[in-house]
């Protein structure tokens, strides 16, 4: 049986959904399902599907119900909110649907060719959507992109603290535990216990540009920020146009539409001008000095088109880089260019203080940033 309690709870929750849909799934079937998943890969969609289908389905007419519940539970197909303890999160629903297109009967040669063609088109559309810039997407494609963004989970890097915890191995001996074990053994030499430095998540701060020049990207970046507040701890989110606004509390809602509506009501400078320097200076003075970003990762999402004083921006970036651990800048104008050079005054002023410059203009760039974030320790 799998050792992860959250993983076991997700399998039990899936069996419960099947039971609510009319399938006769008992406790013994659930135990068999967990045992079947023990040697398999929990991140493999096909392993989850076939292990459940062979252990929880007993009649052929139950297969359509099982497929419908599986897609709804593991692919968020028809749900407003994903369950937080599911072992599998889909990076691309279209790719997952292509993976799960399993024929009920053995197809003929012509049917097999048609099926392969259909699955190839679905996978091709998914790959195209991941690499298509947000500004070039249609409203239907943007809706699909935002649904995929909901599945992206950010894991901030960890840092070693001054405190220590007991561990099987480490660099410092745990003298207290060692002496206690020796006294329990009546003075006989006992096992040597160890301690290691405790690891703690670094704080993550997202500062989003919602000015007019970022109108094609701000909505998707807000969806990305909303997903971050749902999956990561110690996250603060700010947005700015001509002034800085903290929207962390507004984004902490169960439904993304409610969170974005509250955010829109709280922000008064939506799609207006841009004052990056003044906004970052307000963040450093009002929040950075209080410890909101001390030792953390600050992610600034902006195109660098600043209408304010460059000296203010330079001073704010210098102070910010001294307070936080890393400064990451997502600039949609970078795109997929490897030899990108800042061509706006704001970016040229901020460039010396940026540790990592990424694009954030499409879905793949956001996935790459999510994969890269844990390594910024």
Features:
flat, three-stranded antiparallel beta sheet, 3 domains, Rossmann fold, six-stranded mixed beta sheet, 47% helix, alpha/beta, 377 residues
> What Rg, in angstroms, do the CA atoms define?
25 Å
Query: Mean pLDDT, as a whole number?
Result: 81
How many alpha or pi helices?
Answer: 15
Q: Order the strands across the largest sheet as they lie in space.
A: 6-5-4-7-8-9
CATH architecture of the largest domain: 3-Layer(aba) Sandwich
Biggest sheet: strands, sense, closure?
6 strands, mixed
Query: CATH homologous superfamily name of the largest domain?
Result: von Willebrand factor, type A domain
Approximate strand percentage: 5-15%
Helix content: 40-55%
Give the uncertain stretches in residue-range form: 78-95, 101-107, 113-124
Counting DSSP E segments of at least 2 residues, the number of strands comes to: 9
Order of helices and strands: HHHHHHHEEHEEHEEHHHEHEHEH
Taken together, the total number of domains comes to: 3
Shape descriptor reads flat
Going by helix content, strand content and strand pairing, the class is alpha/beta
CATH hierarchy, class of the largest domain: Alpha Beta
Distance between the termini: 33 Å
CATH topology of the largest domain: Rossmann fold
